[in-house]
Design goal:
Structural Genomics Hypothetical 15.5 Kd Protein In mrcA-pckA Intergenic Region, Chain A; Alpha-Beta Plaits; 3 domains; alpha+beta; globular; six-stranded antiparallel sheet; 254 residues
Length: 254
């Protein structure tokens, strides 16, 4: 947390409640938060990074999500990502429906703002609403109108969504190993020494998990995100060069 960004009274209260929840957690419990805005996520991660007894994942249903839920668990157990589902809404009218219209309609069903994640306006008269899986069926069954426009809803896994950013940009190259520092250096065109600084600064995640070791070994299919710069996915690992370096293909997303 930056000293130049003092906490507001609302933020102080939120952080106190968050810390109290951590203190109440048992050693074998998991705690899934509501959807956090970027500032709340910053406060939560700052607090968690000072605790050696917890690990956590950050997930909002899609890469680059603005609103995310944390899944917090004891550092000696294996935890998963937060159970986020997507409610896919479609309509036949040629009229456009705004993000604000969707948010208003969902909140009118009785949900709190922190129970709703990102709302993505998609192509072909459709939109995806990210919610915790406990609310997904309720929203899908009761959201039948947004403004004056009738909509039909189904619950799907967020990974089934076709997002424009999914195409990515392919990067081919060789790396000395599949370590975090080597792969990020190739994917973002920065030096490995710079990557070490970024990792130590808490700006790098692997598969939604914060990492603090630039030497962590990766595998095909792993995703790495660099805060403020986007993410890369190891889409293919090939053979070795004569000098023992590894051929890799990455997909880079902004």
């Amino acid at each position: 947390m930056s000293k130049s960004s003092p906490l507001t009274e609302t933020e102080k209260q939120w952080l106190q409640n968050f810390l109290r929840k951590l203190d109440e957690m048992g050693s074998h419990q998991e705690y899934v938060t509501a959807f956090l805005d970027p500032r709340q996520l910053e406060l939560a991660e700052s607090a968690l990074n000072k605790r050696q007894d917890f690990s956590y994942t950050v997930y909002g249903g899609h890469p680059g999500a603005e609103r995310n839920a944390l899944n917090i668990f004891s550092s000696h157990i294996q935890g998963g990502v937060s159970p986020v589902q997507a409610v896919l809404a479609t309509w036949k009218s040629e009229e456009e429906i705004s993000h604000r219209d969707f948010l208003g309609a969902v909140l009118a069903l009785g949900l709190r703002r922190d129970q709703v994640g990102d709302i993505l306006l998609l192509q072909d008269n459709s939109a995806a609403i990210m919610v915790n899986e406990t609310k997904a069926d309720y929203v899908s069954q009761n959201l039948d109108q947004v403004g004056k426009i009738n909509v039909s809803c189904t619950v799907i896994e967020p990974t089934q969504l076709t997002l424009a950013e999914d195409d990515g940009r392919e990067i081919k190259g060789t790396v000395a190993s599949l370590r975090v520092d080597a792969v990020l250096a190739l994917g973002f065109g920065i030096s490995r020494s710079k990557v070490v600084t970024l990792v130590k600064g808490g700006l790098v995640r692997v598969n939604w998990r914060p990492v603090n070791s630039p030497s962590l070994n990766l595998k095909e299919g792993d995703q790495l995100s660099l805060k403020g710069r986007g993410r890369v996915k190891i889409s293919e690992v090939g053979g070795e060069t004569r000098k023992g370096r590894m051929h890799v293909k990455l997909k880079k997303y902004s």
